[in-house]
Specification:
With 603 residues, the chain is mainly α. Helix 3 runs antiparallel to helix 22 and helix 16 packs across helix 24. A hairpin with a 5-residue loop joins strand 1 and strand 2. A two-stranded antiparallel sheet has the order 1-2. It contains 28 helices and two strands.
Length: 603
């Protein structure tokens, strides 16, 4: 049973996806039932793996065998790190599935949606369970495909189709670097399995330059999937997909895959101080950059999207300062409160007839009390309010950064201040004051299938950071390693101070306001980075098109086609002059040729 359990967890969603997309797509009820059954089988298997599986379990079979030259296994691995991600992916996945039964109730593509959800669950679980880089890359690409289908679920909507394309193409850039890193590691260590690479790590450490290059190439995969600078642009636009997709893919699972991958290969990154420094700075810069942009967004889902970018940046920075345990701890708690916030925003959008502008809301505290209280708990957990889950996990990263790099710590602290500011702004504008639209006046809490997941996630957002809950999941040693230097009281005090400052300033600025008192156009327009990329791509296409046109016109058509044709015609014309059909003329030419030949021979 121990060796079949990982396969059961992995393959259940695949079976569901195949049944839904190939056979059951005409029946919405059957599609939903199959998808729900699959995710609960995976959840049950993950809970069994957590409670019953040994500390380390591996099972595999040979897929490609070319003898000594190359061998590739399809292998599944369950260890402490895997167990944490399994609980996150299947737990959040199950709640999103339940929530979606109501949210997507009237959607014409409901069967297709649940089939795509199952395909995504299969792909994400494959990344989590993979025991080698090649298998991880295969499922990495499958996650890209399934996220493309989910983001572009409403494919008749132009913006959704464009967002799906943008996400897919942007991720391919990072994935190219990831593939290069895998090939580089394989060429040096002759291994693809994590255990085998670790055993042959000396082959890499003997060449620090190659070690750094391979580590940074692998990191490119995380830059794409976890939306770090400069490949962050796809995540805010991906909010065009249904809100449950935002909760599942862009809060708790897909975007966390990059952080999980970095934790899995940390043994490769740790020997290279330069690689870790680059990772730390990209993470810290992304965290601060995204937090700044979130302060000026008005779309409720885009505020949460930039918040996700910012929190992922903190996790990546934690990896960079060597605290992968703290980053995984924050990934674990963040999954609960960010999924809660996305599902809460979905409840608001659902009740307000798809209104997403927070300045067209207001007064929802009275009309949607259950949504308000759960959303408030998620907000407090995200902003680092004392004694909630986010406070403990964020502090773990801050403590590690403080001990390792004061500048990274400064970036992280300012990010925490801005997080409290923009999330308080969201809550005050959307829930307090008077209703600013007819839809807001008639807001209402959603059915139990949508509110029960909110309540469960709200409870987890409170308790997930406490030792009594987190220690059994992370293990005693790992949990306390994530809280290294907990004797330092300065960092928690600073964290509480910036939380209080950001909350108070936002409340004073936005309470009772009917429009934004602070408008910073560059931040509202995302520093025009999307426009810059569009211009760069368009300009590159224009240059390539012009070059292609010049080559086609003057080289291919002018030289090769017309030139050769003209040359052939000219040669033929010259030879034709010699064919004048006069016998005396031919005799004359023959004689002249003989004379010329004799002249050359005598000379």
């Amino acid at each position: 049973m121990a060796h079949t359990l990982p396969w059961l967890i992995l393959l259940s969603p695949l079976v569901s996806a195949l049944l839904v997309l190939l056979f059951a797509h005409r029946s919405k009820a059957l599609s939903v039932a199959l998808s729900l059954a699959a995710v609960f089988v995976s959840l049950g298997g993950s809970l069994l793996a957590f409670s019953k599986a040994p500390e380390s379990l591996s099972t595999h079979f040979t897929w490609i065998d070319l003898g000594p030259a190359f061998q590739l296994n399809i292998g599944l691995k369950i260890d402490d790190l895997t167990k944490v991600m399994l609980l996150v992916v299947t737990g959040i996945g199950a709640l999103v599935h339940i929530y979606s039964t109501v949210y997507m109730e009237k959607d014409e593509g409901k069967s297709r949606f649940f089939g795509s959800l199952s395909l995504f669950m299969f792909s994400m679980l494959g990344i989590v369970l993979a025991d080698n880089l090649a298998m991880m890359f295969i499922f990495w690409e499958l996650v890209g495909v399934s996220s493309y289908l989910l983001i572009g679920h409403w494919f008749t909507k132009e913006s959704a189709a464009a967002a799906a394309n943008k996400a897919f193409l942007t991720n391919r850039i990072g994935d190219f670097g990831f593939m290069a890193g895998i090939l580089l590691v394989w060429s040096i260590t002759d291994s693809l399995g994590f255990a085998e690479i670790a055993a042959n790590i000396s082959k890499l450490t003997n060449n620090p330059t190659l070690l750094t290059i391979s580590g940074l190439c692998l990191f490119c995969g995380a830059v794409g999937k976890s939306a770090q600078l400069p490949l962050h642009v796809w995540l805010p636009d991906a909010m065009e997909g249904p809100t449950p997709v935002s909760a599942l893919i862009h809060a708790a699972t897909m975007v966390a895959a990059g952080v999980y991958m970095l934790a899995r290969i940390f043994f490769l990154l740790e020997p290279s101080a330069l690689a870790l420094s680059v990772i730390a700075w990209i993470g810290a810069t992304t965290a601060l950059f995204a937090a700044l942009l979130a302060t000026q967004q008005n779309d409720i889902k885009k505020i949460l999207a930039y918040s996700t970018l910012s929190q992922l940046g903190l996790m990546v920075a934690g990896i960079g300062v060597g605290a992968w345990g703290a980053s995984m701890f924050h990934l674990f708690t963040h999954a609960f409160f960010k999924a809660l916030l996305f599902l809460g925003s979905g409840a608001i959008i659902h009740a307000l007839h798809h209104e997403q502008d927070i300045w067209k809301m207001g007064g929802l505290k009275k009309t949607m009390p259950k949504t308000f209280w759960t959303f408030a708990i998620g907000t407090l957990a995200l902003t680092g309010a004392p004694f909630l889950a986010g406070f403990f996990s964020k502090d773990a990263i801050l403590l590690a950064a403080y001990a390792k790099n004061p500048f990274i710590f400064g970036f992280a602290l300012i990010t925490s201040l801005l997080t409290a500011f923009y999330m308080t702004r969201l809550v005050v504008v959307a829930f307090f004051g008077k209703a600013r639209s007819d839809a807001a006046k008639h807001g209402h809490d959603c059915p139990p299938a949508m509110t029960v997941p909110l309540l469960i996630l709200a409870i987890l957002s409170i308790i997930a950071g406490y030792p009594v809950f987190a220690e059994p999941i992370f293990g005693h040693d790992n949990f306390h390693a994530a809280h290294a230097a907990t004797h330092n009281t300065l960092v928690p005090l600073l964290a509480i101070s910036v939380f209080a400052l950001g909350t108070i300033v936002a409340y004073v600025l936005y309470c009772g306001k009917s429009k934004d008192p602070i408008v910073i156009r560059p931040l509202a327009n995302r520093l025009y980075i999307d426009e810059f990329y569009s211009a760069l791509i368009a300009g590159t296409q224009d240059v390539l098109a012009s070059l292609s046109g010049w080559l086609d016109r003057y080289v291919l058509d002018g030289v090769l086609v017309r030139g050769l044709s003209a040359g052939t015609w000219g040669a033929g014309y010259l030879f034709r002059l010699l064919q004048f059909g006069n016998l005396q003329g031919y005799a004359f030419l023959f004689g002249a040729g003989v004379v010329a030949l004799l002249y050359l021979l005598i000379k």
